[in-house]
Amino acid sequence: TIDPQRLWDTLMETAQIGGTPKGGICRVTLTDLDRQIRDWFRVECEALGCSVGIDTMGNMFAVRPGKRDDIAPIAMGSHLDTQPTGGKFDGVLGVLAGLEVMRTLHDLGYETNAPIMLVNWTNEEGARFAPSMLGAGVHAGLYAPDMAEAITDRDGVSLREALEGIGYRGDVPVGQTRFSAMFELHIEQGPILEAEGKSIGIVTGVQGMRWYDITLTGRESHTGTTPMKLRRNALLGAARLIEHVDAIAHAHAPHAVGTVGMVEVRPNSRNVIPGEVFLTVDFRHPETAVLEAMETALHQAIDAVAGEIGLAAEHRRVTDNPPVVFDTDCIEAVRRGTQQAGYESREMLSGAGHDATYTAAIAPTAMIFVPCENGLSHNEAENATFADCGAGAQVLLNAVLDYDTR
Amino acid sequence: TIDPQRLWDTLMETAQIGGTPKGGICRVTLTDLDRQIRDWFRVECEALGCSVGIDTMGNMFAVRPGKRDDIAPIAMGSHLDTQPTGGKFDGVLGVLAGLEVMRTLHDLGYETNAPIMLVNWTNEEGARFAPSMLGAGVHAGLYAPDMAEAITDRDGVSLREALEGIGYRGDVPVGQTRFSAMFELHIEQGPILEAEGKSIGIVTGVQGMRWYDITLTGRESHTGTTPMKLRRNALLGAARLIEHVDAIAHAHAPHAVGTVGMVEVRPNSRNVIPGEVFLTVDFRHPETAVLEAMETALHQAIDAVAGEIGLAAEHRRVTDNPPVVFDTDCIEAVRRGTQQAGYESREMLSGAGHDATYTAAIAPTAMIFVPCENGLSHNEAENATFADCGAGAQVLLNAVLDYDTR
Ligand SMILES: NC(=O)NCCC(=O)O
Ligand SMILES: NC(=O)NCCC(=O)O
């Protein structure tokens, strides 16, 4: 059995790297703080006798040898990057629980059949470089490496420059590192497990997600001298689109969600009518057909708003993640691992995207969820209990060993 | 008579300091570019035999002696700072036309009775440090110097730090520099003169203006996992307020204008429901009673929106400029100066605030407007014709000499 105290202590200690006054973590991908946690992660894994490979996307693979080196490793993992105002558990729990599994195996001198691998995927959050889950996505062949390296953040820094900047553009060609299965532990980031008083979610798939970039262009002019009738206010257009996005999600209740998360106003000055606004849209639903309908409604809304105000509108879909169904054998390993430990559980879909969403395309994959307080995530107040973190790590260990001895 | 070609050349040459690819100027107050234009301005004035005093707010006063040193100078002036995406004429025309007047007097060896003063007021735009027209406002005693120096930009840099940073915190106590009248030439920044085919606006006053800061606080959470019903989306609240501000202005047609010019979203990440939004409101109207009614409507809108979505709202009025009526003698000097030169003109109110708005509180003041293309200002495409710039400078010279020989 794993050591829940050691896991908790490791969570709390590493939360200092990028720790915020409000108790969260700001450790945005490929910043110097990300470099610090990566350096720490590498040292800890090497101390357990693992070899650590780094690919050209900065994905980190720590491998503990097994009895047989003719079979690909069984992987665990998640991400160590956070949102700008992220919590202490999102992603981090999956990596550090994997580390706790490695430590437990190491303490016991336990020899698995397959090698065991622990992965830290690059840029899961997508907060700095969109799309999210990019390291895993390129690994799985869903995005071309060249395209990914050329993506820039809002300051114009490319992903490749950022990788080189912190010394984490490794020499292993991305996608070359193989594994035979992947298990990801994560906080649910939603309210379901908590509401039902269950410790473990056996995740059978992930809902679909589509992201859009929109730029509205009107005419900058003086707020004091430009009569209301002569305005082409890009921000008024953005405001209407924000309402439309909300309404589109409500129109596909109860499962649809829709959000504008980012807005940039130009020139963003008190006495200038905004001439240009950039905004992002995030739509999610378990069914592709509904996402399709939401997209059609978004296009209609953009046209309508642009027409009303006299704006030019550019928009494009920047991410399209179809709904994912996880592997039956991996799900079964999680189910048995949960029963073995005796935790209350339920089967469920993931509302958020995860690295596992993409690894599912190339290897048998499943996920384990644990509850988080008030279903709150992407918030510095994000919280999970000591007991639930331990439960998640235990089920991760059990599932990996179950899969190994299948 | 002034030399319109020399004026135009000076406008175009100095537009290089902070010149933008789109033909505008980005010369935000107290940046290094502002320092460059100030250095240039000082050298040019000194070359004409003027003494240049700088006060603790960075306001620059160039004085050309007159026959009598027992009477306070007649001032001309405006501002050399610009919006982040400003045009080549807003403010700059008033200062450089004043310089052209000085050059003309110098070339002719003309001796005025009163000394003539040319002023470059600090931070007229208010784009970096709100409120706008701050240098003139402190000079006029409407804002306390300590309060003004403590104002910070959105990066937390105080006005005093910024003044010291570019070496323009002068040693003359602010408010000590006296003048007996002030004439400000400015582009109209609105569509009226152009529509009527007139070259000169004889400005009899300034409409009232109120500015507000609003912060809406909801709850940051994950866009993929947070059901629509459990959201407290601060950006949805901001969107509704933007609509309300527009509606409040329309409800007080035809003279009211209302604008949200600045929006800052936190954390501004695609997959985080915005937890906090800061936005600014700008209301204008020629009558205080209507501004009062607009403010009441704004308060009701904030309460309504916060209630609908479950947000906390903080708001405060950061600027209150009552309507201003200019001095009859100064207006008469402008009127006669216009007739003398034979330009088509009309009397009008200013839609925008100007340094003259504040100097009117301490000295007889009036303004001269010239048309700008499509009424467009606070835009890099802002434009005024060679002929109209020359006409404005000529009327400025005429008005000053008329007032001097009254
Ligand atoms: N789990 C998580 O927050 N992933 C980021 C991608 C998403 O927004 O779903
Ligand atoms: N003229 C001008 O743009 N002044 C800035 C203050 C205002 O917004 O009216």
From TrEMBL, chains A, B:
Record keywords: Hydrolase
PANTHER family: ALLANTOATE AMIDOHYDROLASE (PTHR32494:SF5), ALLANTOATE DEIMINASE-RELATED (PTHR32494)
Pfam families: M20_dimer (PF07687), Peptidase_M20 (PF01546)
NCBIfam families, per database record: hydantase, PRK09290.1-3, PRK09290.1-5, PRK12891.1
Similarity field: Belongs to the peptidase M20 family.
Hydrolase in keyword set: yes
Organism (species): Saliniramus fredricksonii
Annotated ranges, domain Peptidase M20 dimerisation: 205-307
Gene Ontology molecular function terms on file: hydrolase activity
Keyword Calcium: no
Protein name as it appears in the record: N-carbamoyl-L-amino-acid hydrolase
